[in-house]
């Protein structure tokens, strides 16, 4: 049945079947909740964006607000695994990972230096 997890027992005639759910590369399960990680460039974290996120129930659009910090956790209510004895579904959590480029073009460096110079004139840009 939907929602079974490792260690669940199902009676099948005279037999008890013990379920062993294999881990998935993309989805990490904690009870009825699912946790995934989403990589985004630092520019999208700073400016904000919309992402298509795969859930166990299909893709969902997630709005990332400007100024999102690394390791921010977004909750998609009811998009997790069905609860075994009813009561709806768990939640899907998306952990944001910020990608920092390893190499920059000359123009990108100039823009970041300009950004840094302007940030110094303000008390803080975070």
Topology:
Blueprint: E1 9-12, E2 15-18, E3 28-30, E4 33-41, H1 42-47, E5 49-55, E6 58-64, E7 73-76, E8 92-99, H2 106-121
Parallel strand pairs: 4-8
Antiparallel strand pairs: 1-2, 3-4, 5-6, 7-8
Specify the biggest β-sheet: 4 strands, mixed
Q: Ends: how far apart?
A: 47 Å
Summing up helix and strand content along with how strands pair, one would put the structural category as alpha+beta
Can you give the mean pLDDT?
A: 91
What proportion of the residues is helical, as a percent range? 10-25%
Q: Give me the number of helical elements.
A: 2
Order of strands in the sheet with the most strands?
Answer: 3-4-8-7
Number of strands: 8
* Cα radius of gyration in angstroms: 21 Å
- Quick one: overall form? elongated
- Range of strand content: 35-45%
Q: SSE order in H/E notation? A: EEEEHEEEEH
- Low-confidence runs: none
Describe the structure.
- The strands form 3 sheets. The chain has a 4-stranded mixed beta sheet. It has a two-stranded antiparallel ribbon with strand order 1-2.
- Strand 1 and strand 2 (15-18) form a beta hairpin.
- The termini are far apart.
- The longest helix is centred in the C-terminal third of the chain and has 16 residues, at 106-121.
- It has 2 helices and 8 strands.
- The protein is elongated and about 75 Å long.
- It has helices at 42-47, 106-121; strands at 9-12, 15-18, 28-30, 33-41, 49-55, 58-64, 73-76, 92-99.
- The protein is α+β, with helices and mostly antiparallel strands and 126 residues long.
